[in-house]
Design brief:
This protein is mostly helical and about 425 residues long. The protein is about 80% helix and about 0% strand. It has a single domain, classed as MFS general substrate transporter like domains (Growth Hormone, Chain: A), CATH 1.20.1250.20.
Length: about 425
């Protein structure tokens, strides 16, 4: 990419506070993805089944859906920076607990699921608050750029974390990845300490009923076509595609291809690597494409990538398919997240993000269980191809039904977007 294009693609990093938080989140999320890669690996080793991996994932993501509503309410009610400090400390402690359980041989599927449930609860509160916090660090005209950079950082961490986890697991065993995750939160806490508190000095808001506020947010989402359409799209993506990639690398690596060491690391990190490769294109061109075109192409590629992984005869071809998945998912996530950030009023942004998160994390755990046990019954390859095919059908339906078209913002003139240009 030309120097000017690269400069435009990273404009948000010119803002000091965003840059500090971005770098720290890269470190913290690298540790988080090491844990995300290590947990299904340990469960698969203990149970030998995709259903076991899916069940643990279910216990991790269901509380994210439930606590996400609370997190959205808290994002609009309390000081975001102070709440984030608490959530980061809690997640660090849970990472340390996982390290202790695995390193001492205390890990069982039930105990791991219990800790995963606690991680999900804290993460559910953390995610909408983090997203709302990021929106405070840049001006509105750089929102798309900041959101995409945030997603890029998240996927860079995914590539580094999952690839590194594969190598570390092969060399030392899985317990070390949980220790690294616990320590990585120090960087995030340091960054939060360095960033000025933009909500300091503001009058304390009167406490409101979180259920009433959630209902207000739900009505706002329902009556805002752009956000409602984003929720529909992420529900399809999360239910049909995302669950498979939670256990595909470990399952394919150990069950289908029998790879270890750097090959397993590459298979586990391929999705993140694909997102990294595609990020410059999305950063430089994402703000000039209509969402209808961007989402049609990205979701089509997402479905095709899923099918390609299911049919891959060699581990290297599976890496290529997973890389395509990572790049297309980054485009989908960036487009949907940006639409919500720009469509929501500031006082309702946290609630809107929380409801969006509920659609994502509501579909994901159900998909984890369904696809996990289906893979044990009919084979991982068969269900992967089926899921990819259903994704293509869903994409065609959303394109023809106008779901993508309704994501256009009031100040956009098709096909160009008027805005210049993830912890996620």
């Amino acid at each position: 990419m030309a120097t000017g294009g690269l400069r435009n693609a990273t404009l948000a990093l010119g803002h000091r506070d965003f840059r500090i938080v971005w770098i720290a989140a890269l470190i913290g999320n690298t540790g988080g993805w090491m844990q995300n890669a290590g947990l299904p690996y340990v469960v698969f080793k203990l149970t030998g089944t995709n259903g076991g991996v899916g069940s643990t994932g279910f216990f991790q993501y269901i509380p994210i859906m439930l606590a996400g509503a609370l997190g959205g309410w808290m994002a609009d009610q309390f000081n975001r920076k102070r709440v984030l400090v608490v959530t980061q400390v809690a997640l660090a402690c849970l990472g340390a607990l996982l390290w202790l359980m695995v390193s001492q041989g205390w890990a069982t599927p039930g105990r791991l699921s219990a800790v995963a449930f606690a991680v999900g609860l804290v993460s559910g509160i953390n995610i909408p608050i983090w997203q709302s916090f990021i929106s405070q660090l840049v001006p509105r005209e750089l929102m798309m750029n900041a959101v995409t950079l945030n997603s890029t950082q998240f996927n860079a961490a995914r590539a580094l974390g999952t690839f590194g986890a594969g190598i570390i697991i092969a060399l030392t065993g899985p317990s070390v990845v949980f220790a690294i995750n616990a320590v990585s939160f120090v960087a995030v806490l340091w960054a939060l300490a360095r960033v000025p508190d933009r909500q300091a000095g503001q009058p304390r808001k009167a406490l409101t009923n979180p259920f009433t506020e959630l209902a207000v947010g739900a009505r706002f989402v329902w009556h805002t076509p752009a956000i409602r359409s984003c929720c529909i799209a992420i529900f399809a993506v999360a239910g049909l595609g995302n669950p498979l990639f939670s256990f595909l690398p470990a399952s394919y690596g150990q069950e289908i291809f029998g790879v270890t060491g750097w090959r397993l690391g590459l298979l586990m990190g391929a999705g993140g690597l694909g997102a990294l490769v595609s990020a410059p294109l999305i950063l430089s061109r994402g703000s000039t494409l209509s969402r209808r075109k961007l989402l049609t192409v990205a979701m089509t590629l997402y479905g095709l990538a899923t099918i390609a992984v299911g049919l891959a005869p060699h581990w290297a071809m599976a890496v290529a398919g997973l890389s395509l998945y990572g790049g297309s998912y980054l485009a989908i996530a960036s487009a949907l997240n940006t639409t919500i950030q720009l469509s929501a009023r500031d006082d309702l942004r946290g609630k809107a993000l929380a409801i969006y998160l509920m659609f994502l994390t509501g579909a994901l755990p159900v998909g984890l269980v369904v696809w996990g046990f289906a893979a044990d019954e009919w084979g991982i390859r068969t269900v992967t191809v089926c899921a990819g095919s259903l994704l293509l059908v869903a994409t065609v339906f959303m394109r023809l039904s106008g779901t993508f078209e309704r994501m256009r913002l009031p100040d956009e003139t098709p096909p160009l977007v008027a805005v210049q240009g993830s912890q996620e």
